């Protein structure tokens, strides 16, 4: 009898051990995870398999001579299917200083409950000295 091939393999990133996980589906379509050293690996694998999410970091345009691109990030992990659209929205966004670190720039993106926030503060440009 040949050994069943995993349907997916991944590294658990829930702790620094980085277990190599293998995912299998039985005849009832139930998911089995091997390679995990603790239960968190199963939770990670199931979430990554059924509804992968990522924290998104990028930049958006700022009306600033000092920092023309402001670093921004999502408050929590965003479902992967919304990432391209969020990056597009962030690319089209122009923020006007002053901006505070943590300030919400896009609220509840696509109804996901995830906000896009400023990763740093940005002051208004100073008027040039005369
Ligand atoms: S399965 Fe457990 S021990 Fe292994 S990387 Fe994930 S959290 Fe760490």
User: Total domains, how many?
Assistant: 2
> Which structural category do the helix and sheet elements fall into?
alpha+beta
Number of beta strands: 10
**Major β-sheet, in short?**
5 strands, mixed
Strand order in the sheet with the most strands: 8-5-6-10-9
Looking at the overall shape, the CATH architecture of the largest domain is: Roll
Return the string of H and E elements. Answer: EEEHEEEEHEEE
Average pLDDT score: 94
CATH topology of the largest domain: CPE0013-like fold
Instruction: Classify the beta-strand content into a percent band.
Output: 25-35%
Helix content: 10-25%
Briefly, what is this?
The chain has 130 residues and is of the alpha+beta class. The protein has helices at 39-50, 83-92, and strands at 8-11, 20-25, 31-34, 53-54, 57-62, 69-74, 78-79, 94-95, 104-106, 116-118. Iron/sulfur cluster binds next to helix 1.
């Amino acid at each position: 009898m040949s050994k069943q091939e995993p349907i997916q393999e991944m590294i658990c990133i829930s702790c620094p051990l980085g277990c190599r996980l293998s995912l299998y589906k039985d005849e009832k379509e139930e998911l089995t995870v091997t390679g995990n050293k603790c239960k968190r690996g199963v939770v990670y694998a199931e979430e990554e398999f059924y509804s992968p999410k990522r924290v998104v970091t990028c930049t958006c345009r700022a009306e600033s001579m000092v920092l023309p691109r402001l670093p921004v990030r999502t408050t929590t992990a965003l479902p992967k299917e919304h990432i391209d659209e969020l990056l597009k929205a962030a690319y089209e966004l122009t923020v006007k200083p002053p901006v505070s670190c943590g300030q919400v720039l896009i609220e509840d993106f696509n109804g996901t409950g995830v906000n896009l926030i400023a990763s740093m503060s940005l002051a208004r440009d100073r008027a040039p000295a005369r």
